[in-house]
Design goal:
homodimer, alpha+beta, BirA Bifunctional Protein, domain 2, Rossmann fold, nine-stranded mixed sheet, five-stranded mixed sheet, 14 helices
Chain lengths: 451, 451
């Protein structure tokens, strides 16, 4: 076969790049588990009727067909999941009798969307989701918990650029609009238009509010004034109060958002920040309270890399309703641009710390014995593939970024970075901790700069 | 939505069951990395023309179609991969200029086949593959390496039943048949029929050898005599020699197989065994030397749970050929039956070691502070969801299998398994190591017994 060409929209990593992704996944998983989140993996497919319930994503679904499927139609339609929320909601309903609520789970899997590939948009990509689901009720403190867990997880990824978790609350927005005198339809219309502020000029949005949503000039100005409010602490409450609008739901939303921002304050660092941004609504999605988005410093054009919120009915079987709160990290959206631009890579392409040299094929078993002794003590290593000249065996290590070469005949190990060679016993020799695993290496390249 | 029903052939695990799978994957990955294998993940899809090159699997391929795909045919046909070898061969060719050879990789991913679901056969299942690929050449010692790495990896999974790695060598079989005077077509015919010995009676196979393959009675008897030879050491060599057949390729195969069995001997334990089984041919697959199969003690009806071998041309771009040797563990084939029959589970359904009790909602932050201190020291925990009576909070822990409940007011922690309650400081308290993570629990149930 001729050399294959990559499939657009289906990114893949070289081994050193994949190590970066593994490190990120391991750090996320460790953090989620520290907070009591158990892992779940769902099948890649769902029945088409479930996937197509959300009309606006229908065109993105990949439908599956067996190559020699019979025409009898006995095979029910299935397709690949386009997010991890639809399968998780189904999993909760299917296993409700066997799960303990509140149920915390994390899920790190690929999802597929047949949309046009472009920067930061892929046809196959990985997501890392955390959700907490209750039966019938789920107290608000779980919204705070979700925010804190994701802040901590992203904060631990210290080789990533800094980021800003932006939070808002749908009760706050909807209560404010209701306080302006709008009805349910009017609230939806205004929310949909104000949500366009990240793409449209405020003047244009104001015009649409007047013409499309049919609100008064005062209502439009008030809605736009609310959307300009941002704060890194609970000072936004006073600024909203200053607008003079009152409503019970607004009070509830302000209380929730203020306590969320206050509870996250201890986690704030220079890299890890939180901001109440009252323009964020997350479109017409199913959110009913807290909403989250996340912007990566210097990579704002990627859009939100981590989004979610509170939904009062994640799932329902007609008798029981399962409210939830969750947030989804776009793992590929975050990593693929950083890796492809060379901002992130690893310092070697293999796990091996040591290449054990082979003096002659007849004595390969001596090299094997050294390797076995090192591995028994948790030191990854490989034995040279051939009894080539030592210079060639050293270059074998160099090309892979492996820091040490062991010479069994001499009973010595060489750090090929500085050439230092010392006597060593495979039963006791220990490399420095930072050499034990490949390390993530960062290069500072700002957005848009060629790699 | 009504309670969903499972999709046949798409197995899913409950959280405690998924923990077993995570433990297996982590142990495999750790072992592979100790031997210098780096991780690779390939996209789930491949071009259809690549997937359909092996005619006999074509009916199993799942074809992908975007829901609103235009009819212009601009979208090239793609389908889900049915194994990890086809995508890996493509990955090697696509990235050959960026990889270092010999290239060791492990890959643990789902694959999909549209075949009829049955015991041990799924439409979606996970595999764990290791392969070593060379450019132009790949010395035989890598065959030994692959066998040893997988023996070590399976050996570390000490909660699994014992197993037997069965090895043979295609050069041995083909050289023997050539020594009997058969030509290339005759060798293929006999190999294909002898491979049916696991399903057909030897007398029936003998009859087919005479009628279908057209060999002489003596040739048939010799072929069947070879296939009966099994040995856990290199004594099979003398038994083959006793059959009186000679051929250079036979000698080469005997040498390779004998040195492989000898090199694996140090890894043999009561649970971890190796056996030369001269009946194994792996069908008409692309193998050209060493072949592997694996049987699980007490679960022989699952078939081979781990198979592979040497292929002299894993991939080729016309100018360069990439020989490889590898083995593929059927992770789902192995785990799904054991988990579904209740042989394997975990002792809790969440990662949490501790539930921190909440005395009143107003003092939830005190419980949060205890949890934060425990997590900072690597102890997974969760805070009780409500300030219910302590009895209810203890039952919350019990139902999840969480061993400890922490009472911040009293500054005490209770081991709810034995009721022992002691004063404790979240800055210093340490649970026993075996409590830190969920543990895999095994129940002895032999094959066929109802769970």
């Amino acid at each position: 076969m001729a050399k294959p060409t990559p499939l657009s929209g289906f990114p893949e990593f070289l081994p050193a790049q994949r190590f970066v992704e593994q490190e990120v996944i391991a750090t996320l998983a460790r953090t989620f588990e520290l907070h009591g989140f158990g892992n779940v993996e769902t099948r890649a497919v769902e029945p088409l009727d479930q996937l197509l319930r959300k009309g606006d994503t229908s065109k993105e679904v990949y439908v599956l067909r067996r190559l020699q499927e019979d025409e009898s139609g006995k095979d029910k339609g299935i397709g690949l999941h386009f997010d991890l929320t639809v399968p998780f909601a189904r999993y909760v309903l299917e296993n409700a009798g066997k799960l303990e609520f509140p149920f915390r789970r994390y899920q790190i899997q690929k999802v597929w969307r047949g949309e046009r590939p472009q920067e930061g948009r892929f046809r196959e990509f990985a997501q890392a989701d955390i959700d907490i689901v209750g039966r019938d009720v789920l107290p608000f403190h779980h919204d705070v918990e979700i925010a804190r867990v994701m802040l901590e997880a992203l904060g631990r990824l210290d080789f990533l650029p800094g980021f800003r978790l932006q939070v808002n609350n749908r009760k706050l927005i909807q209560g404010f609009y209701a306080g302006l005198g709008l009805d349910a339809d009017g609230i939806d219309d205004v929310m949909r238009l104000v949500d366009k502020l990240d793409k449209l000029d405020p003047a244009k949005v104001r015009e649409l509010l007047l013409t499309d949503a049919g609100v008064t000039e005062d209502q439009a100005d008030q809605a736009l004034a609310l959307a300009t409010i941002r704060a890194t602490d609970d000072s936004f409450v006073a600024r909203v109060r200053d607008l003079g609008v009152t409503h019970d739901l607004l009070d509830e939303g302000l209380d929730e958002l203020a306590s969320l921002v206050r509870a996250c304050a201890p986690l704030v660092t220079e890299r890890t920040r939180i901001e109440a941004d009252l323009s964020i609504a997350r479109g017409l999605d199913y959110y009913t309270g807290t909403v989250f988005e996340t912007r990566l410093d210097g990579f704002e054009s990627l859009g939100s890399i981590c989004s979610g919120g509170r939904y009062d009915a994640l799932a329902s079987d007609g008798r029981t309703t399962y409210p939830g709160v969750g947030i989804s990290l776009g793992l590929s959206r975050l990593l693929v641009p950083l890796v492809q631009r060379g901002v992130l890579t690893a310092d070697r392409s293999v796990p091996s710390v040591v290449v054990v040299a082979v003096t002659a094929e007849e004595t390969r078993s001596e090299a094997d014995a050294v390797a076995t002794a090192l591995r028994a003590r948790g030191i990854p290593c490989e034995v040279a593939p051939s009894a080539a000249k030592f210079g060639k065996q050293i270059r074998h290590a160099e090309r892979r970024g492996i820091p040490y070469v062991w010479f069994p005949d001499q009973g010595e190990v060489k750090d090929i970075r500085d050439g230092n060679q010392v006597a060593a016993d495979p039963a006791t020799w220990q490399p420095p901790t930072q050499d034990l695993r490949p390390q993530v290496v960062t290069t500072t390249i700002s957005e848009g700069e060629p790699s």
